[in-house]
Design brief:
The structure is a homodimer of 471-residue chains. Chain A is of the alpha+beta class and 471 residues long. The first copy, chain A, is built from 15 helices and 23 strands. Chain A has a seven-stranded mixed sheet with strand order 3-7-8-14-11-10-9, with helices on both faces. In chain A, strands 16-15-17-18-19 form a five-stranded mixed sheet, sandwiched between helices. In chain A, strand 20 (401-403), helix 14 and strand 21 (420-425) form a beta-alpha-beta unit. In chain A, helix 2 (38-57) packs antiparallel against helix 6 (165-185). Strand 5 (89-94) of chain A pairs antiparallel with strand 5 of chain B, so a sheet runs across the interface.
Amino acid sequence: MNKLSNIEKDFAQWYQDVIYAAELVDETSVRGCYVIRPYAWKMWELIQAYLDARIKETGHQNAAFPLLIPESFIKREAEHVEGFSPELAVVTMAGGKKLEEPLVIRPTSETTIHHSFSRWIKSWRDLPLKINQWANVVRWEMRSRPFLRTTEFFWQEGHTAHETKQEAETEVQLMLNEYVSFIQGQLAIPVIIGQKTEVEKFAGAEKTYAVEAIMPDGKSLQMCTSHLLSQNFAKAFNITFQDRGKTQSYPYLTSWGITTRVIGATIMVHGDQKGLIIPPAIAPIQVVVVPIYKNDDEKDAVQAHYDFIKTALADFRISFDEDMSKTPGAKFYHWELRGVPIRLEIGKRDADKEQVVLVNRLTGEKNIVPFDKLSTTVKMLLEKLQKDLYQRAHEKMDKLVFVGEKLSEFGPKMADEAGAYITGWCGDPACEQELKKYKAFTRCLLETHKLSQCMCCGKSSKRDVLVAKSY
Amino acid sequence: MNKLSNIEKDFAQWYQDVIYAAELVDETSVRGCYVIRPYAWKMWELIQAYLDARIKETGHQNAAFPLLIPESFIKREAEHVEGFSPELAVVTMAGGKKLEEPLVIRPTSETTIHHSFSRWIKSWRDLPLKINQWANVVRWEMRSRPFLRTTEFFWQEGHTAHETKQEAETEVQLMLNEYVSFIQGQLAIPVIIGQKTEVEKFAGAEKTYAVEAIMPDGKSLQMCTSHLLSQNFAKAFNITFQDRGKTQSYPYLTSWGITTRVIGATIMVHGDQKGLIIPPAIAPIQVVVVPIYKNDDEKDAVQAHYDFIKTALADFRISFDEDMSKTPGAKFYHWELRGVPIRLEIGKRDADKEQVVLVNRLTGEKNIVPFDKLSTTVKMLLEKLQKDLYQRAHEKMDKLVFVGEKLSEFGPKMADEAGAYITGWCGDPACEQELKKYKAFTRCLLETHKLSQCMCCGKSSKRDVLVAKSY
């Protein structure tokens, strides 16, 4: 049996332990690349199914653009090339020959998609153009951690073009709100939303909005981003359209994405000493049935009710653990480690009484439930678990977010102890730079204006800012 | 309006014309790579949804393995490296530095997945191991044609490991049969099934089974393959398990895959001079509603029934064409080109009589259908269309497959005219090689034994073989 490191004392090691013990990932022979094993991939499939439906319902269409991008494309937008150059994986040989122009593996697809946009957009009638793709991307990472920072990762990337800046802004907010409702509703993770600073924004964007979540170690994790690209890329890729006034204009572009790293966030936010606790909305198995019997007679008595259980729980993702080589106790341990929300135990005596025992993974509470109430009880319990996980995560987050006035005072605490800080900032990158002394960064500019002075220079603060160590 | 080349006189050019005119693909700046545009990607999503469900129902689990593979992995299996080396795209630079060991972009994932298998398989209890992934792969192609042969393409690749050769054979046949039922049932394409010869089999396999479809130009297109890898890769990647007799053994492996090229096959098999005809099962739009009105009063009268139509056709993929800049005639043309199975016309007089006109894309037949029969009529018509397309394709295929005794006689016909041939073969690769004189290849060995002599040397034939030009 796998023993997980103490979650309170060594959170980072607990994370490493649990992702391997629960068979979510495996190492490979390529630096920073991991196998995403079936149990974790199923979570991603459930995430994809939810988001894909929302992306389509909000008027976007899926397509597929090439993995490989001419090196010259990446260089067309000055900030973009500066931001991504150090992370590129480059194909220089193909078909047994040296390529005339090297090809980079997409680190993100703005450049190749905007090249296509320049071919498709001629008139205002072609706008808005709202495209999404589910894809793998590669960014060469010096230090990797499964899900959180990997050389290859999976994501969706939305790319849209609009007639006016106002419309593009609306799109950026629309998808930001979709992400927030997904993260809070499906992943049960509370978030902090705001705009990235000039230093932290996406390379080539006018504005980047981000959704941040505070992990139990007080570090902030960027869950996703939504960018107003404005006309920079349109100019770099010569995307023009005849507008309603018959003038050639540049469209306003946006892009937005969310990655497999949210699986890492979900593991960190909800897990406990026993292992994962997966929110029911993305749990590959929502109810695991563990039969308990000592002999063939008892076994027959229990199994006689399997059809009933399958029918009663047909709306849920259920699994029967019939592994004869394991004791019930070993099975409890196995499924607790894997974070299945509800365990359903049924023994001979339960079978005779037409009842089962439901065990809540979050609280460990046991409930005896008669057969005729099984379906409704499971439904209620899964809904309750989803809400309780969010509530618990919110309480944890509240204890990790502080208000700090002076960086010189809260900086050392932030460096040594768990915690993120809301503080004031004058807007000067030099003051932002001071955070690095404490291994921290600005995470996002908030809509609030509670603090009047800059954390660093003491001058007037423009708006509140979230600062923290980060993943 | 786009005019398609004559489908009878220049089939190859018709194909090129229709895939661009119907906005299925677009060119990119990377050799052999294409954008798969939303309308075609939706077909792939429908194909994925069907196959993914079947793959899961037959006991496989999805996972994700790395895009990049160490060059040394590819070299471990002698035949495999020989087969794939000329097609590899190689990453030599990453993160601004030259890599110590080059990484190839997966042309297929046997090597990296078998490396993982060697970590996961310890005992017979770990078998069978049945994994699938949906992925993009890259094979450097000198000559590309959208969908049919592209540098990057999309597919699913299944990889399994079994205790016995018998079990592995069963798996290979199971998935071959799944493919056949998918291709015939969903794509409405009749097929010929058989085993590849030693020369044509997958690099590293013991046996390759293929599903071939005959295109209207008489060329044979390999729709998918299912390989018995046996123990070659297991030995190369040192996958061993303790068997039931407590001896260390090598498992028997299989792999099987189907790619986006089946979209190309569907276009070729069913299309006509007006454009695509998409089988209802994979049609992004099954029914397109074209309203017909001359003024606002008529428009209101027609649109008053939209809610009814939406409700009546809620089980189908429908779309309303409300483009005010186009005449009904232009819309008919537009949707015929895109191969939507049923056009639903509704004008003021129809609205008043509570009826619509349904037009069959395959036959052009028009039917007046009263509102109360709309739902059932559409259901029946889609089912009929699906069957009729298969029937028509089968008739076309029957006219393109001939029996030939002597290569010297049928070879010239095969080189100049459309057609595939069933003939005899002694099994000698030298006789197989003779086919190249006529630009043809063996496609698959059949179960039949109608011809007693080899097409080439006249010696005794072992079994019938399908020979044809190929895509």
